[in-house]
UniProtKB/TrEMBL annotation:
Required to protect lysosomal transporter MFSD1 from lysosomal proteolysis and for MFSD1 lysosomal localization. This is Glycosylated lysosomal membrane protein. Keywords: Glycoprotein, Lysosome, Membrane, Signal, Transmembrane, Transmembrane helix. It is found in: Lysosome membrane. It is a single-pass type I membrane protein. One of its GO terms (cellular component) is lysosomal membrane. It comes from Amphiprion ocellaris (Clown anemonefish). The keyword Protein transport does not apply. The lineage of its organism: Eukaryota, Metazoa, Chordata, Craniata, Vertebrata. InterPro entries: NCU-G1. Belongs to the GLMP family.
Amino acid sequence: MNQEVKFTVQPIRSRGLAALLRGQLTNSGSHVTAALTVTTKMAAAAESRFGAVRLILTFCVFRLFIGAETFNRQVTVQLNPGSHATPPDGDLLHVRAVGDNDTLHYLLSNQGAPTLLLVHTDSPNSTVQVNWTQFPAHSSLKVEPESSILYSGGIVFSRLLEYDDVNDTAEPSDFFPPYELQNFTWSRLKLLDLTASLCGTSTTFTNGSLCLQLSVFDSEGRGLSWPRLLHSANSSQLEVWLDGVSPRAAHSRFLLELKAVGGAYPLSRVEVHQSIDDEFTPSIFKVSQWVSSENSSSDVLGFAQWKPVAYRQRHPVLEDATPCRHSKPQPQSGEVTAASSALIHAFYSEPKVVGLNMSFGLAGEPFYNNTKFLSWTLLVGVGSPPVDFFSPLVISIMAVGLGTPMVLMLLGGVYVCIRKRTASTTAYEPIN
């Protein structure tokens, strides 16, 4: 028996269909809008971070190329200028570094306490005049024309101090009689290219010697051995080392007394700055600057710069580094200082002097007797001290280390955006 089955189809009104389609599209559109909003925010955040990194890298690259434009000087070296015979009491080294419109005169003497004198003039034609028949009497050494002198300053290595650190506190006390460096017997200056060295011994020394080496520069660069100080054409480097001296106690530590000499404005205050990194001086993140300024202004006339580290081996490794500290600068007698240094006595009539002590080693550090060697380096120059910056190697590492994550974030944001857009197009199923 056949039965007739009737299907009743309810018509869908056009307004209902339109509403249905509108609802589906609105729902799909909201997903797309939300996805685009999230992706836009992610991209904006990534762009913000990338912009900051890009700014840092741009500055580093800019500094790298600017640093490549170095200032050069024409450097000449003369031993005992104007003398027709070797002076019997010691040598006088004159290094003349000529710039475009100025001159630096470096003078190193081993008569009395070893002394470095630096004179800066505003003339490329200024000269040093020495009256050898009267040297080291007052005014027997001049830089002419005298009206061209912008700044003059000297560093005198006056005394070497030793104390017995029985309790290993590295607090100087119980000093032995000091080694007066003006009473040492100093060797003749030995010249090699732009370096000069001398060594001194004393009857109070048991073996060994105290040596100094001066290096002058015609352009910007960096020392070859630790602490690898950054130098410019406006600076020179002094390295001091104590080699093979038998200490007077089993727990001996040493201090070096320095005196800064000047006319109106000698080196007066020490500033300690944090350095950027320890790439060139491992484990050392500070640099000390003994500066001269006019009436305590921020403009630096001259400086002595060092890193607070000394080394216990001639060719050191990291374990041979030992910290050093400086005392507070104190005014000293100009007459006493001039009497100890022939160079200061010959150039200055009324020198102003400020002194400090540099002590080597901290509590727990090995004593001098451990290696019987100790070296320390400082930079002496005019104008503002050199400032360390990132090397090309560090800049490259920064570019890779900081730039790569930012690029990945941007690519990730683009990928999320594309995925969201693709998902939104397949969210609507048509009605069959």
